[in-house]
Hints:
Elements lengths: L2 H8 L3 H13 L3 E8 L2 E8 L1 H21 L1
Antiparallel strand pairs: 1-2
Amino acid sequence: MSFSRLKQVLEETDGSLGTHLRKLEDGGYLAVEKSFRDRRPVTWYELTDKGRSSLRKHVAHLARLIERVE
């Protein structure tokens, strides 16, 4: 997903989103690709295998927590 699309979906500021994405990239959870579209720079983000696995575990833990609270 592109940076601009993530920003739109998450309703975050450039600075806040950039900080979070950098930490996820540094942790090996995201792969980053920079390219140009219509002569404008575009940054693309994709979950790595580590990122996808960690996200699945996190969502499973949240689901168990929600079940226990209900």
